[in-house]
Request: fold
Amino acid sequence: MKLFSFRSPRKIVFGRGSIELLPELLDQLGIRGTAMLVTGRSFARRSGYLDKIKSLLTSSGSKVVVFDRVEPNPSIETVEAGGSLAREQGVEFVIGFGGGSAMDAAKGISVLAAHGGRLEDYFYPAEVKPPILPIIAIPTTCGTGSEVTKYGVYSVGLKKKVIASEEIVPTISILDSNVMKYLPNNITAHTSMDALSHALEAYYHVKSSELSDLYAVESIRMIFENFEKGVKGDFDSKERLFYASMLAGFAINLAGTVVVHGLGYYLTQKFGIPHGLANALFLTQFIEYIAENVPERTVSLGKALGIGADDPSEIARELVQKIDALKSSAGLPMNLKEAGVPESELDKIVEEASSYKRNLENCLKPPSTSDLKAIVKKAFGQ
Ligand SMILES: [Fe+2]
Reply:
């Protein structure tokens, strides 16, 4: 068996209405004092969750500072502004409420509030030293898995930079599936595709292990089963997608992402294509590439997913068909051309992906530049 090591939150609660447990959970873990609620610009307020969380906190004796300026793909400036405010206000713990952007901003703010400096001081491969402020993560999308991971991802111009440190694994994760009622169908589709990418990429990561496979396979299986109904608004299916995205979070916490994320980042930074959709645009080409180059893992994956075939290229064909069917059921663009990416950008996509060395090197078969070119060319479409 392979060695594995990971940290998970001290407390994870999952279920409808579980946000009500916030005061009790804080009390159990002795977390008290001034809280900073980190969130985006509108959803928390519009949905009533901002007031709800504020009143849960004040009822348990906490003071609340609201920082509701987090934009999608948060910038360094936003996180640093949050960090300064947290220091000024004597914030003692941080709550991230939202998608990956809000939770990742909360992680960065917690680090800066504790240690000061610039956000870039903590970017991989730098380590974050303990202690930082306790982080409470409350996700509202079914993609990122950030509520259970050691990653925080930030925008720096056309690049994504990451903090990768077990210190930023949230102390408490509250997955209140009732929030899925508010998630629009298109964001359900995009973020589920992100979770599917996490699970598939973790499976082909050099640090994949028996444990990460367990999370990855179950996540893939549940996304395959629940995506089509979930993206049409079925609440039970959305709840299962929400759960599957947490499982995929565990898979990348143990292993990590590889080629698909390396390719997708530029599409988000340059064209504003949502992160999950950007990944979805390279997923099937990645599967074809990896099935050819890592056939034995592909056979195990096929078996674990109950795919009858035992030939890796046949398994890849079935996976590709399934993923294409999911994308099409949600009306997602099937290729880069349909997503509005000009053909003149293809070389640049390869060049940018090549700069995410960690993503490429951590793949069980790191792609060469010509492999990346072939993947991107196919992803563009005919
Ligand atoms: Fe992702």
Notes: The chain has a mean pLDDT of 97. The CA atoms of residues 93 and 134 lie 5 Å apart.
